Amino acid sequence: MTTPVLEIRNLHARIEEREILKGVNLVIPQGEVHAIMGRNGSGKSTLSYVLAGKEDYEVTEGEILLNGVSILEMEPDERAAAGLFLAFQYPIEIPGVATMTFLKAAINAQRKARGEGELSTPDFMRAVKEAGAQLNVDSEMLKRPLNVGFSGGEKKRAEIMQMALLKPSLAVLDETDSGLDIDALQVVSKGVNALRDGKRSMLVITHYQRLLNHIVPDVVHVFSDGRIVESGDKDLALQLEAKGYADYDGQAA
Amino acid sequence: MRPAFPVRLGAAEETLIAQLKAAGADQVAERVTVAGLPTRRVEAYHYTDLKTLLRTVPPLAQPANEATGTAIRVPGAYALSIVNGVVQHAATAPEGVIVGKTHGGVLTHRDDTLVGISNGLTKEALSLDLRGTIDQVIQIDHRIEGEAGHVADATKIFVADDSSVVILETFSGSDAAHVGNHASYLALGKNAIVTHVTVDLGSRATAHFATNEYHLAEGAQLRTLVVHAGSGLARTHLFPRMEGAGAHADVTGLNLVSEGQHSDITMETTHAVPHTSSQPLFKSITRGRSKAVVQGKLIVARDAQKTDAKFMHQGLMLSDDAEILSKPELEIYADDVVCGHGSTCGKLDEDSLFYLLSRGIPKAEAETMLVRGFIAELIDPIEDEALNEALQGIVDGWLLGQ
Questions:
Q1: Nearest to B324 by CA among B255, B253, B375
Q2: Where are the domains of chain A?
Q3: Which of B254, B302, B299 is closest to B278 using CA atoms?
Q4: Would you tell me the crossing angle of helices A121-134 and A152-166 to the nearest 10 degrees?
Q5: For the structural domain made of A6-248, what CATH number should be given?
Q6: Distances (CA, A) of B353 to A1, A86, B350
Q7: Shortest Cα distance, chain A CAs vs residue B342, angstroms
Q8: Within a 13 Å sphere around the CA of A232, how many CA atoms are in the beta-carbon half?
């Protein structure tokens, strides 16, 4: 059996004194797309931040293995170079940092960390142009400072474009559908689906089932009070949509 | 008039008085004798108390035998230099540039001790008469060489009507406890377009003082950028004056301050006539135990209606031990104006940093990107590519150093 891309074992994490993750267990084999659904405040976004290594969260117990290697002691940039990508729910606007400069720095930093040579400028331009075309990210957007003045849809498209350029082995999509209208949702989903190549794994975190009509998951997990309380196939998402999360309220305590 | 309790004079003041008397500047010598160096009680020196900060003044610098070479080289620039106060022979000037010398100080008399000392001690000034569209950047390289010396030097620049030019003044020298008192006087003719950049790259032991005076005629457009990136004690005092309708000044500056340094940019912009505007924008970045000061005063004369001016100072603290001090002042005598001021101060944004890290960019590089982003607003408008690159190089050099 091949090593799963992601393996989370009994993960506990807290912010300040408050425990948010209370024993998460999750295995995502190579090439699979898993969805995590749960109500607001259940700890879904915390899981994405803990995976990416945000400083504010302290892991108190458990283990996270990315392609069989523990990433708990790694800095966020090392995790990225190891193949993890987080598509932010709210991508950050950074005035004064040109989008192209940022993209080039990110690609080359990851290549360098993996012992690969820098991408030449023509190769870089070609890659950006290709990825941009898929996601309707035009050169006008690329000329602006990073995410500055982007609409909600533009920000999400730019996130997926970054993912296409950085080619992670595991992509974590945190509420990628939030703030998107139907047209934007289709563009983003198409971009994500284009990156499903049988090898890359994805963890799609969402509040609503509608995203999963577009990005069809292999496995759906229900998240409640800091842990996964049920797992099933894509039909589980439909049941949730019909019945809500109330059934799971008692279980987690 | 002598105050009831005469101030106690320190070694720095005794030396200054002797130097001023020897130069025949008796009035200024008298002023220093009576009042001493400015203390925090003098409003314009509130955060830069020279009586405390300047304990000694070295002897007047002698003409230098050796020169260390310029601190910044801008490819393609027409370079002139003033070494230890002496204007050097220059290469053939580009078309539209007349280089000369004038005797004595260049600054308008005003109630300011450093201005008085500059005028009292400056023997010769470099003068430039500029006409037409001058494509070459003009660099004036001020250096203080040899053992610790006190230097008063000056430039006097006239830009003719409808002319445009980019002027860079750089300040550097040997690693010694120099005191530099530099003066720049720029008069902009009607519709002249001028960029004036001054960069202090003096040694840590050096005290750098500069006074820049600008007069803008009708429709003149000025962009200034002051960069403090060297001397242990640096202070630039800016006096832009809008004297013709349609005149506009982007008055900008950057304090890059490290452990043990004190950098001060103080501005007093006067809107003397109706329909003029200015946009003062300053930034300070501090690390270690250091101090950055920005004071900005906007004066609007009684009949200077429709003045549009906004002062802004933004501070970025890279350490917990640094101090950033900000003092905006408005002195408005007209009643139909749009004037404002703002000031912010903070650390690097953690969410921005995490975002960059999450894309694989290592911390040091991510921080550099954010700091560059913070000051892009000041560097980006410098259109000359070689100069822009040189300035970016200074910022990067500062970021790499400690």
A1: B255
A2: 6-248
A3: B299
A4: 130
A5: 3.40.50.300
A6: 38, 14, 5
A7: 18
A8: 11
Q: Do A106 and B357 touch (CB under 8 A)?
A: no
Q: In chain A, what residues touch B359 (CB-CB under 8 Å)?
A: 77, 80, 102, 106, 109-110, 162, 166
- Give counts: helices (H), strands (E), chain A: 9, 12
User: Are the Cβ atoms of B362 and A95 closer than 8 angstroms?
Assistant: no
| Three-state DSSP state, A131 | helix
The DSSP element (H or E) to which B116 belongs, if any, is helix B113-121
| Its pTM surpasses 0.80 | yes
pLDDT in tens, B76-133: 999 999 999 999 877 899 999 999 999 999 999 999 999 999 999 999 999 999 999 9
pLDDT digits (tens, 9 = 90+) for B202-258: 999 999 999 999 999 999 999 999 999 999 999 999 999 999 999 999 999 999 999
**What one-letter code names the amino acid at B312?**
M
- AA letter at B338: V
DSSP string, B31-56: HHHHH-S--TTSGGGTT--HHHH---
CB pairs under 8 A between A and B: 80
Strand A69-70, strand A57-66: pairing: antiparallel
Identify which of B254, B295, B249 has the alpha carbon closest to the alpha carbon of residue B276. Answer: B249
Query: What's the token pair of residue B207?
Result: 């005290």
Half-sphere exposure of B15 (CA within 13 A, CB side): 13
Distance CA B17, CA B6 (A): 15
What is the number of helices (H) and of strands (E) in chain B?
A: 7, 20
Q: Domain spans of chain B?
A: 72-348
A35 neighbors A204 (Cβ within 8 angstroms): yes
DSSP letter (8 states) at residue A119: P
Three-class SS state of A235: helix
In angstroms, rounded to a whole number, what is the distance separating the alpha carbons of residues B331 and B207?
Answer: 30
What's the token pair of residue A55? 């400083």
